[in-house]
Design goal:
With about 250 residues, the protein is an alpha/beta fold. The chain contains 9 helices and 7 strands; from the N terminus they run ααβββααβαβαββααα. The strands form 2 sheets. It has a 5-stranded mixed sheet. A two-stranded antiparallel ribbon has the order 1-2. α3 crosses α7.
Length: about 250
């Protein structure tokens, strides 16, 4: 049986074209880089959030600290409006601590809040508690602010923002949120008040201290001179009237 030469030649060309096309496909497939690993899915089958999505613009380190009641309060070592350095650790084992954060000195709400704490100072002094206000303003600014209001308690300054971040109060404007922290004698958080009424802040702090069972401050002892005077007044000899002097004898008798 004879083969048609033209048919064989045509089939040969088709085979060559097929092999060439297959070789090109294999070469392209081998040169491709592997695609990215699929993102893990959450429990509901949705994509798990990435680290960038979980944090804020500056990263997760700037997100709120998430402190809650029962947590150990972050220690601080800050300059205050009284010109002294104050540490939370100095109060542990001795007394409770209130830290009333406010956004900015010399603004209306912050002025009302700090004045209210001052106006209720005598009531607050009845508790075993150290009261602080706090902001991220410079120490010089808080000094002038406290002086203008004649405050009898220190305002802590945190211009480096480290303590504000540790307490989770730093907001998007790089100012402190108006939160008040109540810290027990053991250094643990008793309560966090995030709903502050500035005009009655002092009244509310006193009420919360009583509600939390913060002990009353011991009565101040009388000065030593008053104690000595009191003892003399209680002495029978001190109360006895002095004797009249004896009459002088007449001469020549």
């Amino acid at each position: 049986m004879s083969l048609d030469v033209r048919k064989v030649s045509s089939l040969d060309r088709l085979a060559r074209l097929a092999l060439s096309a297959l070789g090109g496909l294999l070469l392209t497939a081998c040169s491709r880089e592997p695609g990215p690993t699929p993102a893990p899915t959450g429990a509901a089958g949705t994509a798990a959030p990435t680290a960038a999505a979980a944090g804020t613009g500056a990263g997760a380190a700037d997100s709120p600290a998430g402190l809650k009641v029962g947590d150990k309060a972050p220690d601080f070592d800050l300059m205050a409006s009284d010109g002294k350095q104050h540490k939370l650790s100095d109060h542990v084992g001795k007394e409770a601590v209130v830290v009333a954060w406010f956004p900015k000195a010399f603004t209306g709400g912050c002025t009302a809040q700090c004045k209210s704490l001052h106006d209720n100072g005598e009531t607050l002094k009845k508790f075993q508690v150290a009261v602080y206000a706090a902001s991220v303003d410079a120490p010089e600014k808080n000094y002038e602010f406290a002086k203008s209001l004649e405050l009898d308690y220190p305002i802590l300054s945190d211009p480096k923002l480290d303590v504000a971040k540790a307490y989770g109060v730093l907001n998007a404007n790089n100012m402190a949120s108006r939160w008040t922290f109540y810290i027990g004698k053991d250094g643990k958080i008793l309560f966090i008040d995030r709903q502050i009424e500035t005009a009655k802040a002092g009244v509310d702090v006193a009420a919360k201290l009583k509600e939390l069972g913060v002990p009353s401050a011991p009565e101040r002892a009388a000065p030593a001179c008053r104690q000595r005077c009191a003892r003399r007044l209680r002495s029978p000899c001190a109360r006895a009237p002095a004797r009249a002097p004896a009459p002088a004898a007449r001469s020549g008798s």
